[in-house]
C-alpha cells in the first residue's frame, strides 16, 4: 500500500474486504475513521489522502478531478485490489471515485465490485451551480451552509488559513469538471443521500443510476449533506451489506454485474 496516498485505520481481519474511501472537498482521510471503526474487523477501510491537507499540507493540491483520479488509479496495486474491494466517495469524493472506477474499467484493470456514491448529484456537461464560487468568502459560506460536525472550526482564523488552500483547489477542480457522455459502467452502484441536503436533491443523486449497466439502489437518510454524522450505524450497515455482496458476486464468477431492478429505499 502506498502510505503517502492511502491511510489504514486499525488492524482488520486477514481476509477483510477492502473499502477505498474518497474524501469530500477540503476533507482528509481522517474523515473516514468513524466509519472504519464501525466496519472493523470485517471491512478494511483505506482512505485516500489527497495532497495539500493534514500531513500532506505542504504539497501542492490537485485542481483537476480527472488528474486526481488518474493518479489514484495508478497508485492502486495488487495489495489493494487482489481481494474483493469497493469504492466509497462522499460529495466531491463521489466524482473522484466514479472517475477512478471508470479509468480502471476502461484500462481493463480490476475495477471495484461496487461504487458507493454519497451526497453528490450525477454529473452533467456543466459544473453544478453550487460548485462555481467566486472567492474565499463564497467558499467559506458554502462550507458553513453544508454543516457537519466540524463546521465550528471555520470560526478559527488560524484553522481557516490552514484549510483554505485545499478548499480553493477542490472547488477549482469542481468548477472545472464537466462530464461528457461515456458508456455506463459495469459496476453496481449504491447512492446515498440526505433528505434535507441543501445542495443535492434526492432526484439529482438518483441520476447516478443511469451511469451503470449493473444494479443500482438509492438510500435516503434523514439529514443534510453530512447525514452520516447522525446516521453512521445505518450507513455502515448499508456499506457492509453492499461490500459483502461484492465478495459473494466474485465467488459466483462476476454475478454482481448482472442488471437487476433498482430499489429506492428510505433508510
Automatic annotation (TrEMBL):
Residues 20-239 form the Thioesterase TesA-like domain. Pfam families: Thioesterase (PF00975). GO terms for molecular function: hydrolase activity. Keywords: Hydrolase. GO terms for biological process: lipid biosynthetic process. Signal peptide: none annotated. The keyword Transcription regulation does not apply. Belongs to the thioesterase family. This is Oleoyl-ACP hydrolase. It comes from Streptomyces qaidamensis.
Amino acid at each position: 500500500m502506498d502510505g503517502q496516498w492511502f491511510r489504514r485505520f486499525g488492524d482488520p481481519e486477514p481476509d477483510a474486504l477492502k473499502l477505498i474511501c474518497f474524501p469530500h472537498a477540503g476533507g482528509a482521510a481522517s474523515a473516514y475513521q468513524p466509519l472504519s471503526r464501525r466496519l472493523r474487523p470485517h471491512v478494511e477501510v483505506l482512505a485516500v489522502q489527497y495532497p495539500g491537507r493534514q500531513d500532506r499540507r505542504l504539497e501542492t493540491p490537485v485542481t483537476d478531478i480527472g488528474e486526481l483520479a488518474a493518479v489514484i488509479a495508478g497508485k492502486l496495486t495488487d495489495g489493494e485490489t487482489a481481494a474483493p474491494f469497493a469504492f466509497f466517495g462522499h460529495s466531491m469524493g463521489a466524482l473522484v471515485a466514479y472517475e477512478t472506477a471508470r479509468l480502471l474499467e476502461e484500462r481493463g484493470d480490476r475495477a471495484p465490485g461496487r461504487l458507493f456514491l454519497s451526497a453528490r448529484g450525477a454529473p452533467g456537461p456543466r459544473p453544478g451551480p453550487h460548485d462555481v464560487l467566486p472567492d474565499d468568502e463564497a467558499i467559506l459560506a458554502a462550507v458553513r451552509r453544508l454543516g457537519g460536525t466540524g463546521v465550528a472550526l471555520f470560526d478559527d482564523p488560524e484553522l481557516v488559513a490552514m484549510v483554505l488552500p485545499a478548499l480553493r483547489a477542490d472547488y477549482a477542480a469542481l468548477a472545472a469538471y464537466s462530464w461528457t457522455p461515456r458508456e455506463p459502467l459495469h459496476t453496481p452502484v449504491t447512492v446515498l443521500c440526505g433528505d434535507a441536503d441543501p445542495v443535492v436533491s434526492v432526484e439529482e443523486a438518483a441520476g447516478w443510476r443511469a451511469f451503470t449497466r449493473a444494479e443500482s439502489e438509492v438510500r435516503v437518510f434523514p439529514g443534510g449533506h453530512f447525514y452520516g454524522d447522525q446516521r453512521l450505524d445505518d450507513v455502515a450497515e448499508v456499506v457492509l451489506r453492499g461490500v459483502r455482496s461484492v465478495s459473494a458476486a466474485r465467488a459466483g464468477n462476476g454475478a454482481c454485474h448482472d442488471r437487476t431492478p433498482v430499489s429506492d429505499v428510505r433508510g
